Amino acid sequence: ILPGRQVFLVDTHVNYDPTAEQLAEITVMAAEEMLRFGVQPKAALLSHSNFGSSNQPSAVKMREALALIQQRAPWLEVDGEMHGDAALDAEYRGELMPRSTLTGEANLLVLPNIDAANISYNLLKTAAGGGIAIGPVLLGAAQPAHILTPSATVRRIVNMTALTVADANAAR
Question: What CATH number does the domain containing 13 carry?
Answer without folding.
Answer: 3.40.50.10750
